[in-house]
Amino acid sequence: MGVWEGDKWSWKLEWRRGRIGREKDEEEALWEKLGNLQLKKGVEDHWRWLHDSDGSYMVKKAYLAPSEGILEEQLCKVIWCRLVPSKVSFFGWRLCLDKLPTKWNIRKRGVLLQEEELMCVLCHNMIEEANHLFSMCKEAWILWTEVLQWWNMKTVMPNIVRGVADIFVYNLGRVVGKEMGACIFLVVSWYLWYWRNGKVFDNEAVIRGRLLDMIQAKSFLWIKNKVNGCAFSFNEWKVNPVACALSMRSHKQAMKLFLKQQKKGYTAEWNAS
Ligand SMILES: [Zn+2]
């Protein structure tokens, strides 16, 4: 591999045969990397995780690393929110990176699907890809509208998944906290996917009219499980989720948010009563 020449390490790479084709470029790239390395005599080799400043490895950081630069740090953090099970965060992370096995993504991977098989199972009108299924689809749009009404929120729904995430994480998040905003986005998306899978695999496993009830019940259970001292009832959660979410924050935090929103005139478009 190499020898010490005084205090300087000199690489001596030996190859069994000459490099061909792409290997030449790879060898060049390797030499470039090795050229920047300064080995120190007497220091033992060790593993270091490059995506962390102190070099320590954590599973959560490993999940975040591939999305660095694609999902901004802020959204990445809230997707791994403590209010939902990790399987739901993982699902949300795949959704925001467009890594879910939608029919369009399956086709992109080379699995041949006929034109009619690519259609969205909810509306049967458009090709099923993530931005359609989780945002533009008129059936999904109706569900999002019901959820917005539940949170007493008026807004124009964007036509991309990231835009929908932003509405919940940032717009709703300004009132009830980003973590809660992310939680609602994740729960609704989770049930949209569950609904879609029911139609694809079981043919009508989910009753459409019960989806909002299921979203309300599941989010209530998850939050109650994860946060100590939640004093609100399921009925209160159904009737006034904003008040319930604010009750989870300390009085000081809630007051700070309220004053901030009042200053921005945000309360004019948001009725958190
Ligand atoms: Zn559709």
- Tell me about the largest β-sheet: 2 strands, antiparallel
Ligand names: zinc ion
Helix content: 40-55%
As a percent range, the share of strand residues is under 5%
Number of domains: 2
Gap between N and C termini: 71 Å
Poorly predicted spans: 266-273
Given helix and strand content, the structural type is mainly alpha
* Global morphology: extended
How many helix segments?
13
Oligomerization state of this entry?
single chain
List the helices and strands in order: EEHHHHHHHHHHHHH
Number of strands: 2
Strand order of the largest sheet: 1-2
Residue-averaged pLDDT: 82
Any idea what the radius of gyration is?
25 Å
Main traits of this protein?
273 residues, mainly alpha, two-stranded antiparallel ribbon, 2 strands, binds zinc ion, Reverse transcriptase zinc-binding domain-containing protein, RVT-Znf
What can you see in these coordinates?
- It is a single chain.
- Helix content is 55%, strand content 3%.
- By secondary structure, it is mainly α.
- The protein folds into 2 domains: 2-35, no CATH class; 69-268, no CATH class.
- A two-stranded antiparallel sheet has the order 1-2.
- A hairpin with a 2-residue loop joins β1 and β2 (8-11).
- The structure holds zinc ion.
- The site of zinc ion has 8 residues, from loops.
- InterPro entries: RVT-Znf (IPR026960).
- This is Reverse transcriptase zinc-binding domain-containing protein.
- It holds the Pfam family zf-RVT.
- Residues 57-144 form the Reverse transcriptase zinc-binding domain.
